[in-house]
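Bench notes, afternoon.
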Amino acid sequence: MRKDGHVQIRIPAQRKAAWLDAAGGRRHLSAWVRASAEAAVVAGVDPGTLRAELAAVRRELGAIGNNVNQLAHRANAGLGIDRADVARAAAAVDDMRQRVSIVLRVL
């Protein structure tokens, strides 16, 4: 597709730095912005909707984390739950929550 349109936007320097980092450097920023905008168009999801959905996912991960903590409590009480599995699950949930939080801060 021929690229004959031009779009110019102003963003805070801090946001530009974050975009450059996400894009992998200045040479890739335009392509990254185009791909991000196109993905939103193709997916039919506006940023506000995406933000709400990610917030819901974060809440759900919090609930799952609470369940994992209850399992850990049972394991500590000697009720036969594999502690290593519980620790891995808890770490995975925490990692996912942090990743979603980072995305939410960027939006």
